[in-house]
Structures are given as C-alpha cells and as structure tokens.
Amino acid sequence: MKKLVVLTGAGISAESGINTFRGSNGLWEGHDVTKVASPEGFARNPQLVLDFYNQRRKQLLEVLPNKAHYNLVDLETDFDVEIITQNIDDLHERAGSSKVIHLHGELLKVRSSIDENLILDWRKDLFLGDLCHKKSQLRPHIVWFGEMVPMLNKAAEIVQKADVLIIIGTSMQVYPAASLIHYTQPNIPIYFIDPKPAVSENNFENLTIIKNVASSGTTELLRLLL
Questions:
Q1: 1-18+65-104+149-226 has which fold?
Q2: How many C-beta neighbours within 10 Å does residue 185 have?
C-alpha cells in the first residue's frame, strides 16, 4: 500500500469556523502573538494567556470537522495515510483519521510548566492554581514562538518515506514546518491545495497545484488519486 503523507495548516480548519491563525497584521485573534503565544508572555501575564486559550478551547468544542477532514479519512481505504498538522485542534481525529502528528501541540491537552513530558487531557477552562502532581502550574500543551518543535524530527522521518505528499491549507512559508517538504524523495508526486498558493509548479518537480479551498480541493484530489 502506498504511503501518503499529508501536511495540513490553518486552511483546512477554516471551513469549520476556526480562525486561530496569525493574520497579516501580526495579530492572532486580535492579540499580539508575543503576549499570548510565547514563554515570555506567559511569564509576564499568565492570566491573559490562560484566558486566550480557554476561549480557543471553548470555540473548538463547538465546531465540527468539515468535508476536507472526512475526505482524508476516505483516503485510508486505499493508502497508508499519515497526517502531520500544524493545527492545534482535534478535527482530524474527530473525523476519523488514524495517524495524526501535531507539530505545534494540542489545544485539548495541558502540561506541567516544569516537565514537558507530563501531559494531561483537558477539555475545561484552565486557571491559575491548577497544578500538576509535581505542584507546578499547568500550561497549554502548545509549542509557543521561541520553543523547540519536539515532533519535527519524527515528522521529517515520515515525510522521507512518502510515496505521495499532499499539502493543504498552509503557505509552507513558516519555519521549521516549511522545511519538511525538502525531506521528500526525488520526484514523488506533490499536491498543493490552497486558494492562494504561495508556490508555483516551477518550484518543485512533479508538483500539482489545486487552487481551491480545502473541502473542494480534497474532493478533486480524491478524483485524481482513486
């Protein structure tokens, strides 16, 4: 069975009503990203950061996977599909995808401030004073700006084994995630689904651009692959 690796970004979740991405003005949902998505911001104003992610968590629990998420599940019938997502939502899992890696963490998890391997499932609000068993403040299980991306090496290993690479709803302009495309084997088919693609078919060998939103683009992809 051919291995199909999918890299997804904010564009695949946008049609579900999630707009938790950084805008061109440098703001994230109206907030300066350095204040709500950095270790320095958390140290300076932990209440603001916890409130910000509490709102994101509430929003996530109110939305549903969309057609694009379900189309990727359908591909598992004919391919060994692994998804590497930059998104912190759980919409791939809720749709039924069986192999998902989150590069930037998960909104429905929290972790110890002193032990990054002490991770808990969390679906309610997180408050100052919520401690792990090591007596440290719990924080969102999110990779903030300036922090290492612990799943990056594993993701690179997966991309190296891909027979087909699919990129959906991400500009592939933000590093280190953007570097993953360079781990592909020479000349494997690459499909790029985005209404405003930041690459051209001259950028990579064997690149097919599907200039569409994720739901329509993945529907077209299914026709091309199956």
A1: Rossmann fold (3.40.50)
A2: 11
Q: Determine whether 104 is an active site residue.
A: yes
Mean pLDDT (the chain, rounded): 92
| Distance separating alpha carbons of residues 197 and 209, to the nearest angstrom | 8
pLDDT in tens, 207-225: 999 999 999 999 999 999 9
Domain spanning 19-62+108-142: which CATH class is it, in words?
Answer: alpha beta
Of the listed 104, 133, 141, 182, which one is catalytic? 104
Please state the domain extents for the chain: 1-18+65-104+149-226, 19-62+108-142
Asked whether this chain's domains 1-18+65-104+149-226 and 19-62+108-142 adopt the same fold, the reply is: no
Q: 105-112 and 138-142: which strand pairing?
A: antiparallel
Count other Cβ atoms within 10 Å, centred on residue 177: 21
CB 183 within 8 A of CB 168: no
Q: Which of 3, 2, 15 is nearest to 193 (CA)?
A: 15
Q: Which two tokens stand for residue 105?
A: 């963490």
Buried b (16+ CB within 10 A) or exposed e, 13-23: bbbbebebbee
Residue 124 sits at the vertex; the CA angle it makes with 119 and 130, to the nearest 5 degrees, is 60
Confidence label for 226 from pLDDT (cuts 50, 70 and 90): confident
pTM of this structure: 0.93
